[in-house]
Design goal:
The chain is mainly β and 218 residues long. Helices cover 5% and strands 40% of the residues.
Length: 218
């Protein structure tokens, strides 16, 4: 705004350098000419402004290229002043496409809980609560049976290498996965089914039997 220097009695000199775009809109002032009243044009953003885009940096979201102006609290709006961005800049995710137990923010909400249960989508029943991952490898049946956080999905069983008939049976709980008589040995990969209740893997007539695919709780 204008600076006034008084010299020589009543004489004044205006030496301000403010321009209309530096002063709130509608407010009048004199800058460096006492005969010229100016009107400010800098917008008052009592109801907030808008930003063009957002950026994530150092754990914070930044709204960039916000509307120019003076941001002032409005007593009639406890949330003022505000700056908005188009909601589609945050993406379009919805709960059914985000894993259960995880949260997300998109144009459909802030810090929303996901509802997607992949195991249910794959047709499994009695899906336990919690977060599970599917793992592959070699896990002894004894280790799988003793760990409450492991549910077998697939079993590999090798039959005894004996001459003549040898009856074998691989069971998951009360369900027989594979059974029969072998003359010269063999193997079977047995899928345990879609019921994810924790059950025991047992076998008879087999010289090796391991869990090769399983669910593990994380």
């Amino acid at each position: 705004m204008a600076n006034i220097i008084r010299t020589g009695g009543a004489s004044t000199e205006l030496i301000g350098n403010a321009k209309p775009e530096d002063v709130a809109e509608g407010k009048t002032f004199y800058s460096n000419d006492e005969d010229t009243k100016l009107v400010g044009t800098l917008p008052m953003r009592i109801n907030g402004g808008t930003g063009e885009n957002i950026a994530l940096w150092d754990g914070k979201f930044y709204v960039r290229k916000i509307s120019e102006g003076i941001y002032k609290h409005d007593d009639g709006n406890i949330n003022s002043p505000e700056v908005s961005v188009p909601s589609n800049l945050l993406g379009n995710a919805t709960p059914e496409f985000v894993l259960e137990g995880q949260t997300f923010t998109s144009k459909n909400g802030v810090n929303v809980q996901g509802t997607l249960n992949i195991l249910s989508k794959l047709g499994f029943t009695n899906v336990p609560s919690g977060n599970w991952v599917i793992k592959k490898g070699t896990l002894t049946a004894a280790a799988a049976n003793s760990n409450p956080n492991i549910i077998p999905l697939e079993v590999y069983a090798g039959f005894s290498q004996l001459a003549g008939t040898e009856y074998h049976e691989v069971k998951y709980g009360n369900t027989v996965l594979n059974s029969g008589r072998e003359y010269s040995g063999g193997y079977a990969r047995c899928f345990c089914g879609t019921d994810l209740i924790k059950q025991q893997v047992t076998a008879s007539g087999c010289h090796t039997w391991n869990v090769v695919t399983w669910l593990e709780k994380i």
